[in-house]
């Protein structure tokens, strides 16, 4: 019977021996590793089979625009929504169609927001719009029977332009909210705008009514 040498200690062993009689090392050949075939592409799409595809990089979906962002980003690369928004309770969905919301806001700014499930924003929009219209009416009434508007004409034009901007912007935002899109004017910007408008209106009231009345006495 033919012999061979142990690859570990060099002792002579039988050719069909499974282990060495000197060092007891295994003489069995290691099992061959299975051959891995290349991923097979589908005939219709030419893509790699799903089970053979490489694992995609971790990402999180934006709850506002749906964009998939890398996990290391804290803000959405498209709309800027925070990653923490994923863990917040979902806001109530729109209650009316976008067109109906825009029509309501054209009737009175804020009504479209109210109908779309944003009552607080709607109240702020209504207050700003009514305050602006009231300021224009007050300016006109304060100059009735006098020598005209005089130096208050630029302020009157400014407030009339503000009314137009408020009506158009409110309708656009109501349409966007009812469509599930972020509004153009945020709640914070709306709040600061209302504060600035109130301050400006008080200054005008003091200039057009209080000061002339005190001089008349």
Descriptive overview:
This protein has 217 residues and is mostly helical. It contains 5 helices and 4 strands. α1 packs antiparallel against α4 and α3 runs parallel beside α5. The radius of gyration is 38 Å and the shape is rod-shaped. About 3% of the residues have low confidence.
Number of strands: 4
The count of helical stretches stands at 5
Proportion of helical residues = 40-55%
Order of helices and strands: EEEEHHHHH
Low-confidence stretches: 48-54
Approximately how much beta-strand content do the residues carry? 5-15%
Mean pLDDT over the full residue set: 75
What class, by secondary structure content?
mainly alpha
Give the overall form: rod-shaped
Strand neighbour order, sheet with most strands: 1-2
Distance between the termini: 137 Å
Q: Report the C-alpha radius of gyration, rounded.
A: 38 Å
Largest sheet: 2 strands, antiparallel
